[in-house]
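Each lists sequence, tokenised fold; shown next:
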Amino acid sequence: MSVNGPVSPGDLFVFYGLLKQGASGMPAHIDLDAAGQFGAPCWFRGSLYDLGGFPGVVAGDGLCEGIRYRMTDTSIIGALDEFEDVIPGDPAGSLYERRKLALLDANGVETGELAWIYWYIQPVSSFVAIPSGIWPLNAGRTRKGA
């Protein structure tokens, strides 16, 4: 599994929270529209949590929903990683890590696509699970740097 590895033009991402197109709390300083294209909904396995105005996904068997995004301009990776509190080489100080996972269709069947995702790497025991696996577009709050 590649963690926080190099991103190439054309790589897929799955955004499930504040980075979804039209989401409350989306960072205004990161121009996702200029750096790639948003696509269709997609699904992945995990457990989604409300971390206090922004979501995090951890290992689990649930079916979570996100939006495909194809990156064409990788110069925004540093800003995305910073927004998601990814600190390379310091997992204890990071909230998320960027990793690849298999995308699924609405029935939970693998599509054959791999996408980068921001995966929450801190404990979730004090947070509320979102059993639907869907973060509402209007549920977010602005985070640092946004």
Q: What stands out?
A: The chain has one domain: 12-129.
